[in-house]
Amino acid sequence: MTAIIDSTVTPARAPSPRFHVVLYQPQIPNNTGNIGRTCMATGCRLHVVHPIGFDMDEKACRRAGLDYWDLVDCVEHASWEEFLAKERPPRLWLYSTKSDRPHWDASFNEGDYLLFGQETGGVPAEVHAWVDATYGAGHQLTLPMRADPRARSLNLATVVACGIYEGLRQTGGMVR
Question: Which DSSP helix (H) or strand (E) runs through 168?
Fold first, then answer.
């Protein structure tokens, strides 16, 4: 695993990101790279919560981010507890296959935190409970899928992009 990077010295760090994209212990470097690229292109800050299933310097992550990686506003957190202590998110939305509330029913604000779980298991029950206790049950969202047991979930990078762009749609698009 890589050391935690203090991104406060990274020139890419934006003073007020459109949204905060939080990846809870991601496992696949290509997904994280693609998500970083989407964050850069939309003015969002990427938060990566450790432990993760790869090295952030891994070639696959950087390859998926292409030549954008140096421009990604990325903050790494050693743990979920450190993320909460450092960020204290005022508003957060958890994307989960366990929710039945479509994400277009949410009312996003610029600066909201969008939380996404691991590719293979989402977030643990304690995180679901924390979201409910802190923000209310309405802060768990899903991207609806057809009722077919073979359609278990969508690709993480796809869900993140959908979440960001729904938020942008609701908050005025890319115009600032």
Answer: helix 156-170
> What confidence tens digit (pLDDT) does each residue in 69-98 have?
788 999 999 999 999 999 999 999 999 999
Structure tokens that stand for 62 in this block: 């950087």
Task: Compute the distance between CA of residue 157 and CA of residue 150 in angstroms, rounded to an integer.
Answer: 19
pTM (2 d.p.):
0.88
DSSP run (H or E) holding 113: strand 113-116
Under 8 Å CB-to-CB from 90, ≥6 apart: which residues? 111
* One-letter amino acid of 36: G
Pick the CATH number of 7-170 from 3.40.50.2000, 1.20.120.160, 3.40.1280.10, 3.30.360.10: 3.40.1280.10
What is the spatial distance between Cα 120 and Cα 133, in angstroms, rounded to a whole number? 25
